[in-house]
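Customer ticket, subject: "Can you confirm the structure for LacI family transcriptional regulator?"

Message body: Hello, I'm evaluating your service for our small team and ran a test protein. I'd like someone to confirm that this is what the system normally returns, since I don't have a reference to compare against.
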Amino acid sequence: MASRVRIEDVAEAAGVSMKTVSRVLNREPNVREETRERVLEVVEKMRYVPHISARSLAGNRSFLIALLYNNPSDNYLMGIMSGVLAACEQQQYNMMLGPLDWDSARMVAKFDELISRSRPDGVVLTPPVTDAPALLARLRELEIPFASISPKVRQNVVGVGMDEKQAAFDMVSHLVSLGHRRIAHISGHPDHGATKWRLAGYQQGLKQARLEFDPDLVVPGLFSFDSGVEAARTLLGGKRRPTAVFAANDDMAAGVVAVALERGLRVPEDLAVSGFDNTPVSNQTFPPLTTVHQPVRDMGRLATLELLADIQRPGSGRMLHVPHTLQLRRSTGAVPA
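Agent reply: Thanks for trying us out. I re-ran your input and got the following:
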């Protein structure tokens, strides 16, 4: 059985010190480009795989990124997780999951426990914890690098976001173009920045179409399937039901489709339904959901890459913007005659 290639072997073959090899593998500055290329060529030729514990000891790092979350949508979280993991694998880091309680005191206590036990090099924050003041204050106090996905405040923050207000506006405009005038909205969790942006886009879409805003057509949800069911029963139980429902995420939109079926309504012939995020559930309903495509996997990946850049070269991480598109499927159609 062939012996494992060691860092000493790579250093000898490249004609450099082990410390230089370590710097190249850890993507540290102050290495000549010619030397960096020579070391990487030897690494590839010898198929050297760095041992993560050795890297940790050499660089005083854990090579671990924590993904922190408190989100009721498993579909959304799985997309983010897939992107974070892809970025970590690309940079030879490990990923760990850190579920947090929403209560501020318990959230910070759980976070402190996670940091003490695992000592990640940095953390990726997902909504709504991305906007939790107590957690953000603790991260800054401990000087732990972090990247935020869809934060409310995007100045001087590392991470990634999308114009969710414009995306919601575009969805309402689509429904208006189909002839709908009585368009309802199921909003999301009150602590999510996305809830505010998507509601604002809905209102702006109505205003652009010269449709009067009716507060009775806006029902709160929690970004979960069950909350979508409850909201849909409220909206569809009245005398003047809407002809279209725009839910602030796909899980809640799937709940609307279920209630429509329960009440003998056809989608989209009797009721148009649309969602937001383009998560897997949007293709699992019948009919498939019209939705806003938010590239959640790419957002997780890009946020993590910016975080890793900031860890390796403090101050180099950026706040990125990703585009949205409408994914038009069979759950929306022309207003009933």
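A couple of notes from the result: The mean pLDDT is 90. Residues 135 and 141 are 10 Å apart (CA to CA). Feel free to reply with more questions.
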